[in-house]
Amino acid sequence: MPPSAKKNLNSCAVRFVPSELQARFPAGTPLLTAIHKSGLVISTLCGGAGICGKCLIRLLQGELAITAADQEALSASQLTQGFRLACTAVLQHDCVVEIPNDKTGTAAEILTRGLGRTVSPNLPL
Ligand code: FES
To answer: Could you give phi then psi for residue 54, rounded to 5 degrees?
Structure first.
C-alpha cells in the first residue's frame, strides 16, 4: 500500500525514489536522519545548516512543512513543485520523497590497487 498524506501520530511511512526503499520513522524524525538510516547518501556540504542547497529533495506525495530555510533558499516555484531542503525537513506525515542527487554508491573509497609508478625517495641528508 503506497504511503498517503494521512497524518500518523506515532510513525510516518516514507518511500524514497528512485531507490524504492521504504521505512517507518517516528513522527518528528528529521528527514536527513531518515535518509541516512535508510542507507542513502545525500550531499550535505554545509553540514545541515540550510545554506548550501545540496540536500535538495522533492516531495512527490504527502506533506513536508515548508521551513524558514526552504523559503530562504528556494524559489516560490520550487516550493510549489515540492522541493525542500532535507536538512531542515521533519517528518510529520507519510510521504514519498525523491532524492534527485542520490549519492548512494558513490562514497569515497580507499584505492588499494592501480596503475602506479615506483618512486624512490631522494631525501637530502
Ligand atoms: S545540507 Fe546544506 S542546505 Fe541542507
So the answer is: -75, -15
State yes or no: cis peptide before 18, omega within 30 of 0. yes
Edge-to-edge strand ranges of the sheet holding 95-98: 22-26, 11-17, 95-98, 56-62, 83-85
Say if ligand 1 is within 6 A of residue 30 CB: no
- CATH number of the domain that residue 44 is part of: 3.10.20.30
| Cβ atoms of 28 and 72 closer than 8 Å | no
- Pocket lining: 85 vs ligand 1, CB cutoff 6 Å: yes
Identify whether 120 is part of a domain: no
Joined grid coordinates for residue 29: 524524525
- pTM here is 0.77
Q: Which atom of ligand 1 is nearest to the CA of 52?
A: 2
Q: Tens digits of per-residue pLDDT, 26-71?
A: 999 999 999 999 999 999 999 989 989 999 999 999 999 999 999 9
How confident is the model at residue 119, as a pLDDT?
Answer: 72
The pLDDT score that the predictor gives to residue 1 is 46
CA 47-48-53 angle, 5° bins: 100
Mean pLDDT of 13-31: 96
